[in-house]
Structures are given as C-alpha cells and as structure tokens.
Amino acid sequence: MRFFRQIGDLKGWKRFGFEVAIIVIGLSITLIAQELITSANRARATREAIDAVEVDMVMLYLHASERLAVEPCRRERFRALADRLQRSDGYWAAEIPESINRNSEHMVLPRVLRSPRRPWSDATWRSLLAGDAAIDMDRQRFIQISAVFVATEGFRERQDAAFDLAGELSHLSMSGPFDAAQRREAYATLSRLASMEGIMTVHARQAREAIMAFDFQNERRFFRFTSSTDGDIADFIANTVATYGACVDTTQFQPFIDDLNATTGMNVTLPRSGSTP
C-alpha cells in the first residue's frame, strides 16, 4: 500500500512520466501477446497445410505403386504389339486381351493398350505455395516435398497426352488389310507412346522413392483408408491383377501396405496370387 501512496504523491512531470511508462509497458505486453498469438496461428496454419499435403502424398504413394506394379505388363504388351507389327504382312488380325478393356464401358470403343490413369493431384501443394506456409516450413522438408511434386507434375503432363496417343492405335482393334505404310505409321505411333510411357514410369519411381524417404508427421494421413474396410486395398490390388494379368508385380504395393498397417493398426495383406475381387 505504501507503494501506491507514493505514486499518488507524484506531481507534475514525475507523475506524467510514470503514466507514460505504464502506457508503454501495457502496449509492449499487448504487442508481445499479439505476436505470440500470430506466431501460434501461423504455426497451426502451416501444420494444417502440411498435413493436407501429406494426405495427398499418400494417394500419390498408392498411384506410383500401382504404376510400378503394372510396368512388367506394359512392357510385355508393348513388345508383343511391336513384334506383331513387324511381322504383319498385308493383313492385320486383331488380338486384344479381354481384360484390357475390363471395367471401361465408359470408353465405348475398345483399346489395344492400357495403363493406369489416375488423378496425380498437387492441389494441396499449390495451395501451400500460394500462402505463408511455404515461408514457415523447415527448408529440408520443403525440398523433400518439392521433389515429390516435381515428379508428380512430370507424370501428369504426359498422362493425358499418352492417353490420347494410345487412342490413335485403336484401329488395331479391328482385323483387315494392313499395308506397309499403315504398318510403319502404327509402329511410329507405338514407339512414341512407348517413350512417353517409359518416362512416366521414371517419374512414378522418382515420386515413390521421394515419398518413401519422407518423414511423415501426420498420423491421420491414411484416413481415407481407415474409414473403409481393410479389404478395400486388397480389392484394389486384385482388380489391378484382374485387369492387367498375372504379370502384375504385386510386391510393389508392399511398402505402401506396411506403412498403412504400421500407422493405423490395420492388418491389410497382399491378395494371394491369382485371386480375383
């Protein structure tokens, strides 16, 4: 109480100086509190943005694994088609594995080649780059995530072009006369498509390697799978085998499944060889 009585006794400039000091201290406390709140909000926004990116990375993980799993089938089909084109002599006898056009009724017309066509999305990453989260991120994590989406962009840029180019070979689904000029044109188109698909596989491998090396922090990154039954992933893999054949290398899915099980406590297993959904 003596302290407050002494303050009350202050007169003139001494009292004025004391009141100014009180105001300055109050403003300083307010500014510090606002800065702490702002920093906390930015940290939370950054964490939420990175969590969303990690969820997308899980889907890319699955898509890349699928792409690598069907790679032996893709190569086998391309080589077989190239060999038949080289050996064709004036007549083309269409031979299309029935499974190639499985579950593709929306295409209406049959295709002679097929590769997985998935939404390799980078929407959450672009959203993060457009905000302040990229500035607040740890530089090493930024570089690691960036590597994933650079490969993703490279894959996506070629996916639609490859799909359209494959459509130019649809005439090989019909039997009929096939002269040398048509054979050369078809072979050139197939060669362009093979090169494009090969580069896409490289991008898929780069993306998956970068994802597997990444230190995930979002424990709920597999929520799209935990909201479903354990069999959904197994069915996804079984459908892949049913579409592309026994040439599918299902072991390419194992790292994804191991991460899924370790993170969520689920018990997903690879379907047995030859199983169908």
List keywords for this structure.
mainly alpha; two-stranded antiparallel ribbon; 277 residues; 9 helices; 67% helix
Blueprint of the fold:
Blueprint: H1 2-8, H2 12-87, E1 90-92, H3 123-130, H4 133-136, H5 139-167, E2 176-178, H6 180-212, H7 223-226, H8 231-244, H9 254-264
Antiparallel strand pairs: 1-2
How would you portray this structure in words?
Keywords: Membrane, Transmembrane, Transmembrane helix. The chain crosses the membrane at residues 12-33. The protein is mainly alpha-helical. It has one domain (51-264). The chain has nine helices and two strands. It has helices at residues 2-8, 12-87, 123-130, 133-136, 139-167, 180-212, 223-226, 231-244, 254-264; strands at residues 90-92, 176-178. Strands 1-2 form a two-stranded antiparallel sheet. Helix 2 (12-87) runs antiparallel to helix 3. The protein starts with a helix and ends in a 13-residue tail after the last helix. 25% of the residues are buried.
Termini, distance in Å? 83 Å
Which spans of ≥5 residues are poorly predicted at pLDDT below 50?
1-5
- Evaluate the radius of gyration: 30 Å
Beta-strand content: under 5%
Sheet of most strands: 2 strands, antiparallel
Transmembrane segments: 12-33
Keywords: Membrane, Transmembrane, Transmembrane helix
In short:
The protein is mostly helical. It contains 9 helices and 2 strands, in the order ααβαααβαααα. The chain crosses the membrane at residues 12-33.
